[in-house]
Design goal:
Blueprint lengths: L1 H14 L1 H8 L7 H17 L5 H19 L7 H17 L2 H4 L6 H11 L3 H19 L2 H15 L1 H20 L8 H10 L6 H10 L3 H29 L8 H27 L6 H22 L4 H15 L6 H33 L4 H29 L8 H9 L5 H11 L8 H32 L7 H25 L10 H5 L16 H25 L5 H15 L11 H7 L3 H6 L6 H39 L4 H28 L1 H29 L5 H20 L9
Length: 748
């Protein structure tokens, strides 16, 4: 339902294109002849009493092209978004040559009209329709802990980095003008605005490739985080120069305006983010309400930031996505959270299908150039890479010491993977729509051609060759310890599936099967490279990381089953993330920060008994005790699951016994620590223990009831409608438990 809703919203928004001009009147002065063309089109449509269906047809074609590309060209070495760009270029070129309108066998004029619509799309509509989806989806899907650790480097590249790049790119443009190569009519204001346009990065193809290759999550987060912040900074800087050139700038300082727009956008996103979290935490397992609320919040944040307060909508979306995806991730109902991620992934897929096809069509249809422009384009392409390299070189001493640091090999990928995309092209289209009295037609054509050319070259060259670069740098190689663990897991999988064949041979329904053919479907046991030289400290570190990942997964499973609260799962999973940052080099039982978070300050217990202030402090104290119990109980359950995993590994005989014994001792130490805390809590605060354990018992009971309903439906004893009503009853009781947990009467 929600997916259909998004699709209809896109269609409706594009059909209302004429209204989007009202959004842009504050920032763009449209050309007079464009207004006359629009007036004549509207008059013609009015006379014919017909509706222009070109936008609808383009959306339909784009989705079909995107789906076909993903399905039939899945194994292509060319990234998905680059393939869409190429298809868009081909469609735009065919239409520009008039083949759709002049084809005699079949009337293809409707396709030509839809491509014309895409070629002349309002750039402001491009931003208002697609940016809320693309920016929010990227920020929402990002791991908040990894982003926070990488944020310093991302900010260095997105603020001082883009300022350096802007001035150096402008200097390149002005050097062309001074040397007589071209651009004679450019001045520094135009060159700086061009520098802002081509500084906006769009590494969607690179990030997707890094995920597919299994490269470092830290590297992918840095590239994507820089892009999100970079886009916001580039748009803000562009508007500073653009408003000045078009005569719409205020008399204030451009530096002050930059900070107002940037920090104002972040503030709008934070405010909306926490308001939405507060709303969502009072909703329980209502997919339509929670999903629709987040969609509306994304568009409202961008609209309010850009249209009402004239601050950065992109940075507002970044803040909103990080708040809802990070801080508010555990506030979204457990049964809705998975669907929410899938929905935004689908929305991002549809948006990318549309936007990269539009980019290709615009480049093919609207580029105006001469032979000398191709020479300058080649020089610009080389120049932006030199500039990017200088930026990283200048900032590298700071970046290698910040957060996760920046290894030299990662720095090369960050340099080469700075693709340009739709945002830069949309900004160039805004320039193309300015009245000739502010910017001449020749300069507008140059802006559009150079921007479109840089977008095309970075996608066709960088995006298609970065896989080779990543593999050549060895960023996809696994450590010997990890390789040994994967080898053991593969052998264990092969042995278990082989045993299953022997059991199937006794099954009376399949015992006459061709077992040689069945065996050909067994998992691969080939070792692609020799595993040797595995140091014991490397092996134990890799084993610890696997157990930490399993422990983190256990907490989220408990949360989804209703056995762990939203605050508890956040505390515990954040602790695991911090341990994973250590790379398995410290003991699993080194949880001092977690143990400290369980402890309740003694002063708080004393203040809770004071006459006036005590009432408020008492509520806080009891909430803290409840959270401590929640965390400790789930912690013990996770350690018990880990011990069962230990026994499974021991029985397989694939892991070294001395390593298993070390891990087992560390997990047992954790379990004892958690059990000791619970015993002390029961002894010192029996009334708190009784109340929170009652809450835990109710959660377990409701969870058991839900699983029983699922089994009854699976066995056909109840139908889906009856199961839905029963599950709704469970949701209502769970919501009642959250709002009115068992009361706690503290001792006086």
């Amino acid at each position: 339902m929600d997916k259909i809703l998004l699709f209809l919203c896109l269609i409706f928004s594009i059909q209302l294109q004429s209204f989007s001009s009202s959004i842009s009147t504050d920032s763009v002065i449209h050309k007079q002849h464009n207004e006359e063309v629009i007036h004549s089109i509207n008059e013609e449509q009015s006379n014919n009493h017909s509706t222009d269906t070109a936008p609808v047809l383009f959306i339909i074609l784009s989705i079909f092209i995107g789906v076909a590309t993903r399905h039939f060209l899945k194994k292509s070495p060319i990234p998905f978004t680059v393939l869409l760009l190429i298809i868009g270029l081909i469609l735009g070129l065919i239409n520009r040559l008039g083949y759709f309108s002049n084809y005699s066998l079949v009337d293809l004029s409707a396709i030509g009209a839809s491509i014309n619509f895409a070629a002349h799309i309002d750039p402001h509509m491009l931003l208002f329709i697609f940016l809320p989806i693309l920016i929010f989806e990227a920020a929402y899907a990002m791991d908040l802990h990894t982003f926070k650790k990488s944020s310093t480097n991302a900010i260095l590249l997105a603020v001082p980095g883009i300022l350096i790049a802007l001035f150096l790119t402008a200097a390149i443009a002005m050097s062309f003008s001074a040397s007589g190569l071209g651009l004679e009519n450019w001045n520094w204001s135009l060159a700086l605005m061009f520098g802002a346009i081509v500084s906006a990065t769009d590494p969607v193809a690179v990030v997707a490739l890094l995920k597919d290759l299994g490269a470092s999550k830290k590297l992918g987060t840095l590239i994507e985080g820089e892009s999100l912040l970079n886009d916001g900074t580039a748009i803000v800087l562009f508007m500073v120069f653009f408003l000045s050139i078009s005569g719409q700038a205020d008399d204030g300082s451009p530096i002050v305006e930059f900070f107002r727009v940037a920090f104002g956008g972040l503030l709008v996103g934070l405010i909306f983010g926490y308001l939405i979290i507060y709303w969502i935490k009072n909703v329980f397992n209502d997919t339509l309400v929670e999903t629709s609320l987040v969609i509306a919040a994304a568009y409202l944040t961008f609209y309010v930031a850009e249209h009402l307060f004239h601050v950065s909508g992109v940075l507002g979306l970044v803040a909103l996505g990080l708040v809802i995806g990070g801080v508010g991730n555990s506030r979204i109902s457990p049964q809705v959270e998975h669907f929410m991620h899938e929905f935004w992934e689908l929305a991002g897929f549809i948006a990318n299908c549309l936007i990269f096809l539009i980019v290709g069509v615009v480049i093919a249809e609207r580029s105006v150039f001469n032979l000398n422009d191709f020479l300058l384009l080649g020089l610009f392409y080389i120049g932006i890479h030199i500039v990017r390299g200088l930026v990283i070189l200048i900032l590298y001493p700071f970046m290698k010491k910040s957060g996760y640091g920046l290894p030299k090999k990662d720095a090369i990928v960050v340099w080469y993977g700075a693709l340009r995309g739709a945002i830069g092209l949309a900004l160039a289209l805004i320039v193309a729509d300015v009245d000739d009295q502010y910017i001449s037609q020749e300069i507008k054509d140059q802006f559009l051609f150079f921007t479109a050319g840089i977008v095309t070259l970075t996608l066709l060259i960088n995006a298609t060759t970065i896989k080779f670069l990543v593999e050549k740098l060895g960023l996809t190689k696994i450590t010997p310890a990890k390789g040994l663990m994967l080898k053991n897991a593969r052998e264990h999988l092969y042995e278990n599936t082989s045993k299953q064949i022997e059991l199937l041979k006794k099954d009376r329904f399949v015992k006459k099967s061709d077992w040689e053919q069945v065996k050909s479907y067994l998992p691969d046991t080939k070792i692609h490279r020799e595993i040797e030289g595995v140091e014991s400290h490397e092996a134990i570190a890799e084993l610890r990381k696997r157990f930490l990942e399993a422990e983190k997964s256990s907490y989220w499973h408990q949360f989804r089953d209703g056995l762990l609260g939203a605050e508890g799962v956040k505390v515990l999973s954040d602790n695991i993330s911090r341990l994973l940052d250590q790379g398995g080099q410290i003991s699993l039982s080194d949880r001092q920060d977690l143990e400290e978070s369980w402890e309740t300050p003694k002063l708080l217990a004393k203040v809770s008994k004071w006459p006036i202030l005590g009432k408020f402090v008492n509520d806080w104290f009891l909430d803290r005790m409840t959270l401590s119990y929640d965390c400790a109980m789930s912690f013990v359950m996770a350690q018990e699951e880990a011990l069962r995993l230990i026994e499974s590994m021991r029985s397989s005989g694939k892991e070294e016994e001395n390593l298993i014994e070390i891990i087992e001792s560390e997990i047992n130490a954790n379990r004892i620590e958690g059990q000791t805390f619970l015993r002390n809590l029961r002894k010192n605060y029996p009334e708190v223990y009784q109340a929170v354990s009652t809450t835990q018992a109710v959660r377990s009971l409701l969870n058991y009831e839900a699983k029983t309903i699922e089994r009854l439906q699976k066995r056909g004893r109840i139908d889906s409608a009856e199961a839905s009503r029963m599950m709704q009853s469970i949701d209502e009781r769970m919501k009642r438990l959250q709002k009115n947990p068992p009361s706690i009467e503290s001792k006086n």
